Amino acid sequence: MKPSEFPLEKPEEGLAELNARAERRPTVYRYVESPSAEVAASPGYDSLLDYWHILFRHRKTLLSFALVGLLGAIVISLVQTPIYRVRTSLEIQSTNFLEIKGPTDSTGSYTTPESYVETQVKLLQSESLLEHVIDELKLHEDRPTTGWRAFVSRIFELSKTSHLPETEELIRQMERNLTVRTSGNSHLLEVLYESPDPKRAADVANTLVSEFIELSQEERWKSAQGTAEWLTKHLDEMKTQLEASEAQLQDYASTSGLSFTSEKENLADIQLKELQDELSKAQAERIANQAKYEAARSKPEDSLPEILEDPTMREYRQKLTELQRQYVELSATLTPEHYKVQRVEAQIDDLKSEMEKERSNVLRRIGNEYTAALRREQLLSGANTNQEKVVADQSSKAIHYDTLKRDVDSSRQLYEVMLQRVKEASLASAMRDSNVLVVDRAKPPLLPYRPSMPMNSAIGLFSGVLLGFGFVLLRERIDRRISAPGDTQAYLDLPELGVIPLDEAAVSRQILNRLHPHRSASSLPSEDASSFSPGDCPELATWKRKPSLLAECARTTLTSILLPGQDGEGPRVIVLTSPCPGDGKTTVACNLSIAVAEIGRKVLLIDGDLRRPRLHKVFGVANNWGLSNALRADTPLETIPISHLVRETEVSGLCLLPGGSCGVTPSNLFYSPRMAMLLRRLRTEFDMIMIDAPPMIHLSDSRVLGRLADGVILVVRAGQTTTESALFASHRFAEDGTRVLGTVLNSWDPKGGRRYGYGSYNE
């Protein structure tokens, strides 16, 4: 038999050349660094999408926790005693007219309005007020003496270490059920009371408010009456003291010679101020006149502003100009002796004489004004000096006068305030008012305040979901099993060659076998027996169910295996093993072998599990001759015909080498040189060889076969293989120098895990 031709590889060399090439070809080893225990123990959640996948996988668990929390909240709500809450509101008005601070102070003797309101809150919760309510409603007589409530009450009383009086016990109970709170920054108070009896709750709240208003009125009336008596007693003393102070002030003013205006100001000070103002004005006027005078003496007369701006001089200059013009005109036509010329000359001389007189008058007036201003300044300066002496003499007397005056003003103001308070206190003692106004009175409620079924249900549901989420995360943290695609690549740092989904038909058959362990398929009912055809065997799914998801995933995995490596060639002898039994390596090996045969290659599947061979049962061939017999025989392998060495199967292009019937220890056979010789012989006959090896943690067969093959594929089972066992297997191969091609995740459930590959594929 000759190997089939395939476009990727054409083995045309002889046996010797193949052996030499196999020896010369460098072996690619993959060493795996051992990750830390923390990395191997817990998966990494890099994004919110990872948490969403976790919640989606465990949605049934979360739903169970949520339902348990919801039912628990409903049961607790049903067994609780309904409690009714009533509400009444009060307004604390500002009518504190008895305080001394003034009519605009709304808090009286309190520092802030908030402190006054807080004081009213404490008064509403005081024990004395609660005792008044108990006496008013006669709550001692209304306590239950029979029934389940009385029984529970007696048990509660017996459980106390110290027995309190009945009134004290009622006060403590009312304090627990009473709540008084403020409403924001307003002067409104809310009084809340809780009780199992809605009518009693309303009665207690209304009575509490009524008693509070009555006690407030009583206290305010007593305070007003006492204030009025005290103020009346001290008012006469203050009046006498005020009159004496005013008389003393007037006597001192008359004896010291102090005079004051109606505005109570000293006349000497007023006169001094007026003199100082006049002196300042006189000095300014003198300086201005002195400047004019000095300018008139030093500058030409015609350049002075006073002369230039004088109306008379302005008129004279105009006339002179006109006469000079006439003189010039006459001189041009007439002789100087002409009478007209002489008459104009006489007029010009007269006008110049008048102008000279007027200049002398202006200069004399400037000098007179300067002299008058200087004299006035001197007189005012002297008067100011004399007045300053008078004011200085009266200053010491004015100080004492001001002291007496302040005492009189203080006494008068205090007397007026006291007189006003006496009138107000007399009015307050004559009537009983209250600054507390009832806004809303309490009414018996129709529905209980607690337990609140919607609120408790929401809390129970949220608590259940929260606990379920914590439980799911904890289970994910402590779950060391490989469960989803990508886990092996993250933990082992090995490429994930493919994912084989869970075969639902095989799972159904296993469940039925567990239900009927002693019944064969022939003994089952017709409908059950017909549901299990040969195609239900997961090992032959790629052959029997070609369009199935399992078959497509096996072909996808084969594509990853056939890709050429670093030397440009793909592996030809592959060992498939798993860390532990039951991981499905046989299923993966069978489906991969069938997928290789489908693409036209001639493939040999070797049953390397000599302790528990089962491939002959899967393909329906005899096991009287197999691998163990070939390794134990003394006949040279080159002389054994290939048709005697392997078995053809119903799958075209797929041959099988069963395990055989020899009972020798498999490790001894694999260590023999005949195993390597057998593989070299089979390389010349087949395009690819798949070896189904036993689990490698407890047995060394896989490690021995891995050294003889081109690579090892590690099969892990989703939800069963742990990270520790997978890490142990990869470490052993790395220590042996065995090339690990990658991993295959088997029996992955797309419905229960994260989306991967054909997430919505339909068979």
Tell me about this structure.
With about 775 residues, this protein is an alpha/beta fold. About 55% of the residues lie in helices and about 10% in strands. The chain is built from 27 helices and 12 strands. The chain has helices at about 15-25, 35-40, 50-55, 60-80, 115-125, 125-135, 150-160, 165-175, 200-255, 265-300, 305-310, 310-335, 340-430, 455-480, 485-490, 505-515, 525-530, 540-545, 550-560, 585-600, 615-620, 625-630, 640-645, 665-670, 675-685, 700-710, 725-735, and strands at about 85-90, 180, 190-195, 435-440, 495-500, 575, 605, 645-650, 655, 690, 710-715, 740-750. The strands form 2 sheets. The chain has an 8-stranded mixed sheet, sandwiched between helices. The longest helix has about 90 residues, at about 340-430. It is elongated.
